[in-house]
Design brief:
This protein is an alpha+beta fold and 94 residues long. Strands 1-3-2 form a three-stranded antiparallel β-sheet.
Length: 94
C-alpha cells in the first residue's frame, strides 16, 4: 500500500498490469463508520496486511481494541475523521 501512494510507482504498476491512458489526481480522504462498522468495512483490507494476517485471534482482538480506542477519539458523528492524502488513479485496458 505504501508503494502505491507514490504517483510514479502507481503509474508504473498500472502500466505493468496492462493499463493505459492513465489519469491520477491527489486528494483528501476520510474513513467512515464507527466501532464494528469500521471493522466490517476494513476487515478484508486488514487481512491483506501480512503482519495482521499472521496474528492469532487473541492478538487480533488486542489490535482491534487499540484501533477502537484510536477511532473513538476521532469520531465526528458517525464518521471517523482521519484526514489523509489519497491518490486516485484510473486506467483503461484496451
Amino acid at each position: 500500500m505504501l508503494a502505491l501512494c507514490d504517483a510514479d510507482r502507481l503509474s508504473a504498476e498500472m502500466s505493468a498490469a496492462g493499463l493505459s491512458s492513465l489519469q491520477g489526481s491527489p486528494g483528501r480522504g476520510h474513513l467512515g463508520g464507527v466501532g464494528d462498522v469500521y471493522f466490517d468495512d476494513t476487515e478484508a483490507l486488514h487481512g491483506c496486511m501480512q503482519p495482521y494476517a499472521e496474528l492469532d485471534q487473541a492478538d487480533r482482538e488486542r489490535v482491534r481494541a487499540a484501533i477502537r480506542t484510536f477511532i473513538a477519539e476521532r469520531c465526528v458523528g458517525e464518521t471517523v475523521e482521519l484526514r489523509t492524502p489519497v491518490l486516485v488513479a484510473i486506467g483503461y485496458r484496451i
